[in-house]
Fold:
Amino acid sequence: MSRAARPMELNSVLSELGETSRRDVLAPGWDLSVATCPDASLDFLTPEVFLENRAWTDLPKALDPLLEKTAEAIQKRPSLRNLAWHTYRLVYQTAESRPFDAWPELDQALNGSGGVFYLLLGMAGLGRLREIHRARGIPESVTRATAADIRIGFIRYGRITGGRPGIERRLLNWYRLVGSGDLHRLGRMQYHFRPFRGSLRAYRHRLEGRVLALSEPGIAYDAEGFVSDGVASWTSVLVDVEDRITGFPICPTGKVLPGSVTLRTDSWDCMLQLGDPVLGMHIPEGEAMSLDRCRDSMAKALDFFPRYYPEHPFVGFECLSWILNTQLADMLDENSNLVKYQEELYLFPRPSNGKDGLYFVFDSHEVDPDSAPRDTTLRRAFLDHLKVGKRLRSGGMFFLKEDFPQFGRKHYRGQFAAAKALVG
Structure:
């Protein structure tokens, strides 16, 4: 089909597809997409490409006929083909943040298979993932485990939509990371290099080895020592002058204490601060998080990254997640895997919206405590918490790589007792 025969105007494309309300979120970059759209078939929509991608995701082969039917429908219809190229380019050839969840559903245009359009788009980055991993000599087992993250999104989409195939549009931002080749699943967890995002500085005592984190200045905290989501009780201060640092200590249980401490720079070294290189840890939906599985995954990461990325040193691990909500220690049994894992980490507070974790536990950002399903321990705990008017928090953690031999011994909590004596 010649370029002159294609519908070039975004308004015309969206009008034909019944998605006119989506113009504003799709307009940026449209003209460049039209100018660069290949005359031949879009590569990621050819059977030899998407069927191989499907095989790497561990999705069922029975899905192939639907993938073929949907891809063919997109290729044959100029409006869908232009839109497919535009969305592909925005996901994989640009780095800007996009409102992916506001993109068109496309169910009307594809007879209820809009989710499959996005599944094809989500899988489109797997060729680059495989290429980058091969060039690094990374084992195929790691590449396959990483690519299989698509399957997690597929399962969630089916659960949300009553069994329909596809993935959520909002996950395209995550699958952009998968397709970049920077993400690696190693056992239970996923990892990638990133700058540390915690608003803190972590110090280690040169002789005794204990670690103490201090809050960065200018952060508003509530009376309990968590980042305020309303009226603040106090604001952190950090003074770094000459031979000493004075600030507010962060307890490894995840809250900031209001009394200040002073550390001498000839006795304490800064080991971690905002922007330092760390392994960002992600916790995919799936198996239980036993301490053995967590330890095994972190041990794999400490071996894997120096071996395959020797040019990328890192200080330790970082994670920001609802799973690190310190309220879980009160909401769940002390033998809960989540509680036990938290006890091994240096937790720290971070901003929350009051609904953290709802989507991952209930597949929805809005939950009625009186009618939502109570079929799991975690769901019951969340609903009991919300029913009495409490809000949910998020949290963060770090774990310095030199301390890994202490994993399983509640190391940071055990050594904090000595540090508390410094609080004045």
